[in-house]
Design goal:
By secondary structure, this protein is α+β, with helices and mostly antiparallel strands. The chain is built from eleven helices and 13 strands. Helix 2 (29-38) packs antiparallel against helix 7 (196-206) and helix 5 (149-160) crosses helix 9. The longest helix is centred in the N-terminal third of the chain and has 15 residues, at 87-101.
Length: 318
């Protein structure tokens, strides 16, 4: 088995991800190329295990540098990473990633291991939690048995106030959603959000696997959700409402309508994402029917890497 490291993500690797039980949307070219294009300071890397001329498995990661020091992440921003493909190739890729993490100037290297599949004896594992709604029984079950009464009441209130939800029709809708996104982030000094290029890139590259839903009121966009669709799972990747949209309960109606369409299209789970330990977010996700699902972040850090991780934790809680 031969392992090579490329600085692009060849689109032919999508076929390997499509056939791997451990792959998520974050392993697709649409995500990886969009992320790399939006964050040019992150160096794209993809370790590929091949048997002869045929790729058997791959492990995408990004390199972030501060001066001479490097951090390796599969994948950045807490998105699910690690190797996908056959077992032999995946094991070779893990060994190659571990060797790379042990280089002198690498201060941290980590994998967001959603499926608890990574074996790395020299690293520490932290538990992270997302909330996932089981939508496999259809929307009637979601509405009656997953949403609590207060959320159903809020969704109806939004409709009675004249809020409507639809799938975005083009780049103009992306820009209108981003205007809401930027205006809302302006009051959060600790957060700059993702660059607009990431949203535009995902919608342009994702095809049917990326959907933007917008909530409108009186002709104005008051909120939106970007969802990622892969195999039988939906990831509610990013959502934002204006202050007026919050008053109108647009966020709850966005979730309800997006889940309705996901059920109609045969998806079986709706991943609401991690809450970073924030009780208000956890309570909200549980009120939508989200059930806790633990996964791991497996990471090797030296002293400088541990200091960097502590700084990031403080910043995320600000």
């Amino acid at each position: 088995m031969k392992v090579e490291v490329a600085d692009t993500f060849p689109p032919e690797l999508d076929a390997i991800a499509d056939g791997s039980a451990r792959a998520t949307f974050y392993h697709t070219t649409a995500w990886l190329e969009s992320l790399g294009g939006a964050y040019p300071h992150l160096q794209r890397r993809c370790a590929i295990a091949s048997d002869g001329a045929r790729p058997r498995a791959f492990l995408p990661y990004f390199v972030a540098r501060r001066g001479p020091f490097a951090s390796l992440w599969s994948l950045p921003f807490g998105t699910y990473g690690g190797p996908v493909g056959d077992e032999v190739g995946s094991a070779e890729l893990v060994r190659a990633f571990v060797r790379e993490s042990e280089r002198r100037l690498v201060v941290e290297a980590g994998v967001v291991d959603f499926h608890h599949a990574l074996e790395w004896s020299g690293a520490a594992a932290e538990t992270a939690t997302t909330h996932v709604v089981d939508i496999s029984r259809g929307y009637d079950d979601v509405w009656r048995n997953r949403f609590d009464k207060s959320r159903r009441r809020r969704a109806r209130r939004a409709q009675e106030a004249g809020v409507t939800v639809r799938r975005a029709a083009g780049d103009d809708d992306v820009r209108r959603f981003l205007a809401v996104y930027r205006a809302r982030l302006a009051g959060w000094e600790a957060r700059s959000g993702h660059p607009d290029a990431l949203f535009h890139g995902l919608v342009a590259r994702g095809g049917a696997r990326v959907r933007l839903y917008v909530a409108e009121h009186g002709g104005d966009v008051v909120g939106g959700h970007v969802n990622l669709y892969y195999k039988d799972a939906v990831i509610a990747w990013y959502g934002m409402a204006s202050r007026h949209g919050d008053e109108l309960q647009a966020g709850t109606l966005l979730y309800a309508e997006a889940m309705r369409e996901a059920c109609a299209d045969g998806f079986r789970s709706y991943n609401l994402g991690a809450s970073l330990g924030k009780e208000s977010l956890i309570d909200y996700k549980q009120s939508l029917g989200g059930e806790a699902r633990d996964y791991r972040i497996v990471c090797r850090r030296n002293a400088m890497g541990r200091a960097l991780a502590a700084w990031r934790r403080r910043r995320s809680r600000a």
